[in-house]
Amino acid sequence: MTEARVRRTPRQSRSLERVQRIQAAALTLVQEGGVDAVTTTAIAERAEVSVATLYQFFANRDAVLEALIGGQIEILDRRMAEELTTTGRPDTIAAAVETFIAIHNAHYLEHPQFVALYYKGRARSSGLNKDAHTHLTRIADMLYTGLISTGLLPRDTDRRVVEVAVELGDRIFEMAYRDHPTGDEQIIAEGTLALTRYLEAHR
Questions:
Q1: Among 194, 133, 188, CA closest to 165
Q2: Do the beta carbons of residue 61 and residue 5 sit within 8 Å?
Q3: pLDDT tens for residues 76-95?
Q4: Which domains, ranges and CATH numbers included, belong to the chain?
Q5: Which of 27, 114, 139, 181 has the fewest CB atoms within 10 Å, i.e. the most exposed one?
Q6: pTM for the full model?
Q7: Mind listing the pLDDT tens digit for each residue in 122-139?
C-alpha cells in the first residue's frame, strides 16, 4: 500500500483490512470491466463497506487507483534494479534493451490489471500521470547509468538519448497491449529492434 495516497493511514488491523479490501475490490473491477467500471459506489459494494468508510481512507476513486498503480510501479522499479544487480550489467546494447523489455513484459503478463491502470488510468488522473513520469525517470536513470558505466555508450552521451529510448519503450508496450491482453509479440519484437538500433547509433 502506498501511504502517500491514503487520506488516513490505517493503524489498527481492522482499518488496514478495510483498506486492503477496498484496493482489492478496485483491482477486481479493473480486471472485469476496465477503468471505466471503477466508481466509489462499485468499489464500496464489492469491498462490502460503506461509501463513507471508503472516503475515510481515500479522497475519491482516483486516489484508490493511484495507490494501486503507485504500489505496482514501486514493485516494477525494484524488479528492474534487482535484475540488474543479480544478473550483472549487460555487455551489449542489445542485451540491455532485451533486459528492459523482458522485465516489463513479464510484469505486464503477471499483472494484466497493471496495463489498464497504467496506460488508461493515467490519461484521466494527474496523480497517475505523475507516477508514470516518476517511473520512467527512474528507469532512464538506471539504464543511462548502466550503459555509461559499462562503456556501451560514451560518457559524454546526452542523457536525453536514453530518456527518448525509455519513452519509446513505454509507447511500444502501450501499442503491444492495447488490443492484446498478452501483448502483441510482433510489435514487441519490432520495438526491441528499433530501440536497439537507435541506441547503437549513439555509440
A1: 194
A2: no
A3: 888 888 877 776 678 899 99
A4: 3-61 (1.10.10.60), 65-200 (1.10.357.10)
A5: 181
A6: 0.79
A7: 666 666 677 788 889 999
